[in-house]
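User: My instructor asked us to take a sequence, write out its structure as tokens, and then describe one feature of it. I'm not sure where to start. Here is the sequence I was given:
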Amino acid sequence: SLSSSNSWAASGGKSGAAFAKTKDDRFVVKCISRTELQMFLDCAPAYFEYLSKSFFHGLPTVLCKIVGVYQIGYHNKATGKRDMQQVAVMQNIFYGRKITKTFDLKGSLRGRFAKNLESNNVGVAGGNQLDSTEDNNESSSSKDSVAHRKNSRSKDQHEYSDSESDEDDEDSSVSTDDSNEEDNASADRSLSPDSATSSQPKLKPSDNGDGGNKARVKIPSSETTLLDGDFLEFTAGKPLPLSDRAKAVFHMSILNDTLFLTLINVLDYSILVGIDEENMELVIGIIDFMRQYDILKQMERVGKSIPMVVGSEAPTIIQPPLYKARFTNAMEKYFMTVPTKWTTI
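Assistant: Let's start with the prediction itself. The structure tokens for your sequence are:
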């Protein structure tokens, strides 16, 4: 599997790390820093002990398995330049699955929206006003251009009618048909989402009988990784339903994994959730658990906490015990148990 791989433009992360996928789609290769490599080597004994308990004793876990960490050196003999990269090889939890939507959840809502969605600071009313203004500008510009063409054509027809009056009726009728076609074509261009004059794609409005009040958002592509704010918009603020058995295993796995990561002083991890609509299943795994709470993370937490106002959302970087509590509480809100006829009370 590792003999050949292709670069992969993964979305959703803020680190900007380079990713690659093996050609058989089984493993994901991520470039990491030397600091992350050293942190993983320090925590490796505890990590392998935890996974051995999970494998031999049936301990529930949803950690994304790291199968290898490597250092790759390059030497350009022509220039004499040397380079060293560190990579981590992880399992692809979506291998063999047809995932339609992917979410990267951390339990925090501060800045947790995908880049290609509408800003969460813009309300629906503001978006409607902006959309109506854009529509008016586009329609007025298209009308002005059509009216200008009509006036120019009418002048040409008037000059031509002075010389040949017999053909004036035919030309005027043809020009009228042409102007109507151009009018319809320009109107189609102003309403088409693929138009070059349209800065944002226009989507089908909600069928609520508002008339002119049509809210529009950008729909991300199927490969875009969405975040916590997008997850709440996708579920309309309601938790995703799970069977009682699946919810019990999920709950125990989250508790075990977050407790282990807290003990080794790791934070800023997240859970990757993929929706397999074909099999009606959720594929989940905890990723990005190679960063410990060092002095750099402490400085980042202080820097993000300074501009905070009272009542605002806490920054994503907090102490590992607090991060664990916030993460587990968010998972309880994001997912819920749906009882069946086999559920016991």
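For the description part of your assignment, you could build on this observation: Helices lie at 34-57, 124-163, 168-191, 228-234, 244-263, 295-305, 320-334. Try explaining in your own words what that tells you about the chain.
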